[in-house]
Structures are given as structure tokens and as C-alpha cells.
């Protein structure tokens, strides 16, 4: 009998075309990675932990652009056994390993991104600006916990932008939105803002330029993400204050040049 927990650990066949598309575009959207039953089983517990741990309580009108974009709660797996089951899914981790072309991946961290009803847009940005890691062998699984049409703010990608090298010094901000929007438009990258159905999961590279529209609906956009890294990756010297913060929060302040093999970064596949 297949249960929600065992489905999370069953393999998912990534096609050669999916691997090729990921390499070329810096992301891939995979349909039906999880059954709707699995998503709806874990969503209430993830949401409960987001509500419990969240520290952002200012009204939307009083927040800056970044804070209006979403409620951001990290490392939920450390607070709930049920969330741990979800984050430690071998199915999701196995997809990450196949897309990266590595034999094994470990957890960098998880992150819930809940865009409140009426929440603002997420500016164009790249993720790896924040990560003190020695290579770009990283990938983020973006897992919506409900159908995500345009009005809820689906993740939007500039296809192929991970190869450009542009914008890597920019933190997520109004400045990154303006500069990267001009760059994406002038470079002619295909912009993919297609909706997600419950159970669809996208995977994107740390250097892929991406954003999300605001949530114009009356319900929250609930998303869980899991960030994976090549199990052989090493910690790099922090290049900015954000990377220094990540070193402490997610890598246990381990020394540059070492593999992050402590309890915060277990091998998941």
C-alpha cells in the first residue's frame, strides 16, 4: 500500500530531455511530481509551522518591497517531524541529483515562502548571491501547496539567464528588479510565468534570474522550497554579509574549504 510518506521516497523518472532543458534554461518545471493527496496531507502542518514561527507582523502597507513579497520561514524541518518527512523526500532529492548530474545531494536548507493575499511582487534576483558555496552545483525545488494560477504569483523564470553571469552581485531589492528587468528584456530571454497545478514542482539553478508577480487573490500563496547542494561541495569564504549570515544559520559556521557534513546538512540522496 502506498502512503503519503512512501510516495515521497519513491523514485521519479527524470527524462534526458528534462536534464537537457535544465542545463539549457537553468530551470525545469515537472508536472505531477507529487500527487495532490501528498501535497494536501502535508500542507496543514507546513502552514501551522509557518504561522507559529513567523516573526513578520507589520501590516503590508508598512513593509518594504522585500517584506511585502512573502513571509519567509526557514528550516521548518527542525520544528516538525511531519515537515521533516516532506523535506527529506528521496523523490525530490533524487530529481535534484539527476538534474545536477551528481551522485549525491545534501540539504542546504528549506524555506517556506508564503505570499499573503494582496502581497507584493518578488523582485528579479538570483539566489546564489547569498550562498557561501564553492560551486554552482545547487538547485532549489519550488513546491506550491495549492494550484497556483497567475493571480497567486507563480515563480517566473528568465530561461537561460543562469549562463549570463549578469546581476550576481545584486541583493534582492527594488534595484535588482529594475536592473534585471531591463537586462532580461533587452537580452530577449524567454520569460516563463506559466501556472502550476497542485503536485507540479519546479527546480532552478542558483544563478537563474527569477521573480514572481504579486498575489492579487484573496487567499495566500503557500509554497515550500528545499535547496539542495552537491554532497561534495565545499564551503567558500563568505563574499558578503548575507553569506556570512548563511554560514552561521545553515552551515553551522564550519570552516571554508571543508565539506558541510554536519547535522544541519544531511545527505538526502
UniProtKB/TrEMBL annotation:
<keyword id="KW-0560">Oxidoreductase</keyword>
<dbReference type="GO" id="GO:0005506">
    <property type="term" value="F:iron ion binding"/>
</dbReference>
<dbReference type="Pfam" id="PF05721">
    <property type="entry name" value="PhyH"/>
</dbReference>
<protein>
    <submittedName>
        <fullName>Phytanoyl-CoA dioxygenase</fullName>
    </submittedName>
</protein>
<keyword id="KW-0223">Dioxygenase</keyword>
<dbReference type="GO" id="GO:0016706">
    <property type="term" value="F:2-oxoglutarate-dependent dioxygenase activity"/>
</dbReference>
<dbReference type="InterPro" id="IPR008775">
    <property type="entry name" value="Phytyl_CoA_dOase-like"/>
</dbReference>
Amino acid at each position: 500500500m502506498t502512503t503519503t510518506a512512501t510516495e515521497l521516497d519513491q523514485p521519479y523518472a527524470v527524462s534526458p530531455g528534462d536534464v537537457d532543458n535544465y542545463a539549457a534554461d537553468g530551470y525545469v518545471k515537472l508536472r505531477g511530481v507529487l500527487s495532490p493527496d501528498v501535497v494536501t496531507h502535508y500542507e496543514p502542518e507546513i502552514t501551522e509551522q509557518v504561522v507559529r514561527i513567523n516573526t513578520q507582523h507589520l501590516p503590508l502597507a508598512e513593509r518594504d518591497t522585500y517584506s511585502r513579497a512573502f513571509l519567509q520561514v526557514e528550516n521548518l524541518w527542525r520544528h516538525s517531524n511531519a515537515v521533516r518527512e516532506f523535506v527529506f523526500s528521496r523523490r525530490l532529492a533524487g530529481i535534484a541529483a539527476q538534474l545536477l548530474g551528481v551522485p549525491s545531494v545534501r540539504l542546504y536548507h528549506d524555506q517556506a515562502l508564503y505570499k499573503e493575499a494582496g502581497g507584493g511582487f518578488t523582485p528579479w534576483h538570483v539566489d546564489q548571491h547569498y550562498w557561501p558555496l564553492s560551486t554552482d552545483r545547487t538547485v532549489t525545488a519550488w513546491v506550491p501547496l495549492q494550484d497556483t494560477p497567475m493571480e497567486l504569483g507563480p515563480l517566473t523564470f528568465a530561461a537561460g539567464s543562469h549562463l549570463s553571469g549578469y546581476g550576481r552581485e545584486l541583493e534582492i531589492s527594488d534595484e535588482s528588479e529594475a536592473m534585471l528587468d531591463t537586462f532580461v528584456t533587452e537580452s530577449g530571454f524567454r520569460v516563463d510565468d506559466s501556472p502550476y497545478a497542485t503536485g507540479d514542482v519546479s527546480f532552478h539553478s542558483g544563478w537563474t534570474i527569477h521573480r514572481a508577480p504579486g498575489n492579487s487573490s484573496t487567499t495566500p500563496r503557500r509554497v515550500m522550497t528545499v535547496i539542495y547542494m552537491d554532497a561534495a561541495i565545499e564551503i567558500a569564504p563568505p563574499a558578503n554579509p548575507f553569506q556570512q549570515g548563511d554560514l552561521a544559520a545553515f552551515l553551522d559556521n564550519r570552516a571554508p574549504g571543508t565539506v558541510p557534513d554536519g547535522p544541519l546538512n544531511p545527505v538526502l540522496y
